[in-house]
Request: fold
Amino acid sequence: MSLLELEEPRELKQMIKNLNTVLGTGPSGARGRGKGLLVYNKLPQYIWSSWSKELKKLGIEWGEFLSIISKHSDLIVEWAVEEKISWKEYLTKLREALITYSKTKTGRRVSLDTFTKKSA
Reply:
């Protein structure tokens, strides 16, 4: 499966919205607005289950993946809570962050075409 061909997890999106409401971190722009959204790692697990093979080829392991998603939790808020970006936009921005990380870590040039090809 290509990194861009991942069905939007609507149930997870609703869970994130609900958690955001419970934690009282609404879309008001508070600095910690993304904190707590990864409590159960459901979204990272969902993405990793489909992307892990390709990400490992790029030298990205589970712990690094979690760190990258955590650093970009604002994107989760924009997608799930504020609905400012689509699921596809979220995945595109996350993919860009992962590619940048991989390039920095390995010193390799990563082609977007290669990165998004379907695995055999």
Q: What stands out?
A: The chain has one domain: 10-21+42-116. Residues 10-21+42-116 form one domain. The longest helix spans residues 87-106. Residues 115-120 have pLDDT under 50 and may be disordered.
